[in-house]
Amino acid sequence: MNQRIGRRIESVSLNLLALILIIFIVGPLVWVAVASIQGENELLRHPPRIIPHDPTLDNYDYVFTGKIPTAYEVKGQLRSRISQEARLIPAALKNSFIVATSVMIVNLVIGSIAAYTFAWQRFRGRTFLLNFILGSRLLPVMAVAIPYYVIIQTLGLLDTYISLILIYLALTLPFSIWFLSSYFSGIPKDFEDAAHIDGCNTFQALTRVVIPIALPGLVAAAAFAFMASYNEFLFARFLTQSIDSQTGPVIISSIAGNPDASYSLISVAITLGLIPPLILAIVLRRWLTEGLSTSITLR
Amino acid sequence: MAQHPGAARRHHSLRLGRKAYPYLSILPVLIVVALFAIYPIIHAVRMSFYKYLLTRPNDHPFVGLGNFIEVITSYYFKNSIQVTAIYTVAAVVGVVIYGLGVALLLNTSIKLAGPLKIVILLPWALPAVVSGLLWKWILNADFGILNGLLYALGLIDSYIPFLADPTLAKLSLIMAFIWKEGPLVAIFFLAGLQLIPDEYYEAAKIDGGSAWTIFRHVKVPLLRAVFLIVIVYETMTAILTFDTIYVLTGGGPADSTALISWFAYAEIFKGLNLGHGIALAIIIAAVTLVLILVYLRALKPEEATS
Known about the structure:
With 299 residues, chain A is mainly α. Chain A is 74% helix and 0% strand.
């Protein structure tokens, strides 16, 4: 009897803890979405309303069509708080998406081929080359920012997608190589041997046998490459100059950095920026955990 | 007759192909990584020995260790080392405890473990710029929802300027770090927990182990490799925190959240003193490397016996 009460208390308190964590994790996201459908005058109340009395899509309308929200006209003087830059958000998110998708695909193709070699092949210089690739990420980005700029300028790639794609590949490949090579070495060698006996060469063994088995790990690596590129800020900020290549984080930080910026429009910018990574995080959740549990070992 | 030489050649090229395959297969990765590693590192190290001011682009005399001496004796160095140390220790300890706690919770069969699993990764997926802005807006001293909530609940009499007080600003930054980085740590620990075979728990239970002894003497030792990955990765991430500071505190108030990496940024992009900035970045890299080696030694997994 006593034990049952004890277990009940334990279950209730653990659920309560989980509830607090869920609120801590989701609260900020919900609040910014709520703020984005409020007019400026309602948002700047003291204290703010958690449930808007007068929800409106005007702020979104402004970003996509340029129609000034009515909440601004009511107060007249607030017109100046409209941040013109907010209208660049859809284009910037499109840039982010193109860059991140390209990095993800190239990273996955050349990364998985190389990781497979590091996992299974024995060749001269293997350890050195692997350490070189992994160690290349040790230098802080600030130190290499200027040399990167010089390289991109020399290649004539300033303000292009390609400049960002190249740099993000260099930033994400070491992680993919580490992650995928430990993932591949977790796959029983028998599968590969069987493929060889059936007359496959190393490359065919990779594409026909190993890749289908390794799908969770590949999806996880792809997600990491996508997220890292979609979210990168420092290089994007100083290698891009116009909306031709400026990415989401660059435009969002620039809108928010404007002292005259409208809070509801900042919220719209953030909310729109949240959508793609959130969808990815929810869709890929299972794959990520599964991929990680295969690639890490307890030794 | 005619088949023989052809077959031999094919055999020969097959063997050559097998020897060349490893190198060919890693070549594309090597090219990209080398392009953005070898030249930039040589260039950066070289620049750290010269006086490099963007305001005087054609005049950069060799100064030896001058840049290193100047940054180490600068007004901000000692303070920023302190800030970096406090922040890094608090952020890494905080995120490991938080991540491990969440993972242990996710590994139970409670009702809310499912919903928690669905949302846990969300903060990790966001750009740091965006999560920084979320918190800036929530912590806002005039219109922030946190102040609004605390006020509505009667917990405070007047709004708290979270980001204008040095201690509260540090705490806010650490909390934003834990919120953003915690999910990945949790998933790593969860993956590790799921790898522990059930027999271990059963054996410990038969021996009469309480939940705490199982945690302390079964889970923690077995998770050593995960601890190592997580601590190394999060230390590097914390020391180099930039995006969040950029949008959340701007290094303030009064440099209370300005890490060394922040000054490396400020020297390069605001002071236009590349020599100083790169010297700082090299110091950070050296410290990071030493820390990783220390961790590797301290947490080195025991050999096969364990």
